[in-house]
Amino acid sequence: MAAVTAMFSALMLTITTGQSPASAATIPDGITSMTTTASQVEQWDEVDFTCTWAVPDYSQPGDTFTLKLPAQLRWFGAAAFDLRDPDGTVVATALADASGLVTFTLSGYASDHPTNLHGACAFSTQYVEQTTTEQVDLQFDVGSSVIHAPISTTDPCTDGCGPDPAATKKYSWWHNAEQSIVRSVITAPAMTAATSDVTVTDTPGPGLALDCATVAVKVGTVRGTRGFLSAPFTNNPATITCTAQQLTVTLTGLAVGEIFEVWVDAHVIDPSRGAYTNQGTVTINGAEEPVTATERTSSASGTGQGSAATPTATPTPTPTPTSTATPAPTPTLAPSTPAGSITTTDQASAAPVPKGGEVAGSSTLPNTGSPLSPALILFAVALLGAGGVLVARSQRQAPRKSRGGVRCPPRG
């Protein structure tokens, strides 16, 4: 019986939800809208987006829906994030891969909130294609349809868009889409003295460790289109001392007009921090100047909520009525005026029969709800016969009248 009940429940769930309770489904078009406030986007700019999402009623835990970034964008920031309800419960999880495919997976929250399940998300991307002044129609594949998000772009920088040639400064940026490597460069204006000695230090802040294998020192006089040094470079050997927590570079005898750059990568060793800072110093001919740069992570997030299932009251089983036989009237023997007669009455209020079946203190039989017993019937027949015999004998013994009114003696 239990197996039949389970099969019936599974069948009803399949009818109402359209799927087997043990299977996970891919939901098409779970993402319902995409928006951005970015404009005049240039190559390598960070572009933030928001989305809305909704899934059909009675979607199951483990069901997924997807979002595919267009070719112009790459995911920027932590690849995994949660979508939570107002109480902090995880409604769904999201994971972006290297191709730009973001997969959202419903959690167990869907079981307890099976209807009106929807929410929003927010994430960052990086514009990787070369830009022009044209408006670009970004197309997000969400399953069986595409969501369009137009965005305006601008020509790439060609002049004055790199380091300030008149400032001693440290520049940094995220070197990879996962935001786990910070690349930085320390530079200063061209040397003004006939010969200059330079010392550069770089100290990573909490959560960062320098990668000494990436240290590069450049000296030259030509800046490229983006403001950094380009070939030809000057052959000026540098003295480099490097650990994970300290870099020191020393240059001697730089000529007038020469420019130096010190490049290094730092790896994130504490992903829980939202910002990462490098500090350093630049000392030229004894004059020291501090430099610093900070990079903040791009945080993806999401929300979700649904309507809780309404408890269904368990019906109380209706008891099966039990039929009760109606007692048949029991004939009752009562004395009558003529001897030997039997009167049958329906004794509805007859006294109950004491245990043992004996009738005490009454000649009236109780109404037991059962037919007369054979013994009782035989007793009644015998009593009737006895009465008849008595009547007959009394009639034979009466004196006979003789002719002429004289009584005759009884016979025999």
Structural features, described:
Helix content is 10%, strand content 39%. The chain is mostly beta strands. It has three helices and 22 strands. The longest helix is centred in the last third of the chain and has 23 residues, at 374-396. Among the domains are: 2-156, Immunoglobulin-like (Sandwich), CATH 2.60.40; 169-296, Agglutinin-like protein, N-terminal domain, N2 subdomain (Immunoglobulin-like, Sandwich). Strands 1, 2, 3, 4, 5, 6, 7, 8 and 20 form a nine-stranded mixed beta sheet that branches. It is elongated and about 110 Å long. Mean pLDDT is 80; it is low at 1-21, 332-374 and 387-412. The protein starts with a helix and ends with a strand. This is Putative surface anchored protein. Residues 1-24 form the signal peptide. InterPro entries: Adhesion_dom_sf, Fibrogen-bd_dom1, SDR_Ig.
Concise synopsis of the structure shown:
This protein is mainly beta.
SSE map:
Blueprint: H1 2-17, E1 31-35, E2 46-54, E3 64-68, E4 73-75, E5 80-84, E6 90-96, E7 101-106, H2 109-112, E8 115-127, E9 135-141, E10 146-152, E11 169-174, E12 181-187, E13 195-204, E14 208-220, E15 239-243, E16 246-255, E17 259-268, E18 275-284, E19 287-296, E20 301-307, H3 374-396, E21 400-401, E22 407-408
Parallel strand pairs: 5-20
Antiparallel strand pairs: 1-2, 2-8, 3-7, 4-8, 5-6, 6-7, 8-20, 9-10, 11-12, 12-17, 13-16, 13-18, 14-17, 15-16, 18-19, 21-22
Signal peptide: 1-24
GO biological process, one term: cell adhesion
Transmembrane segments: 372-392
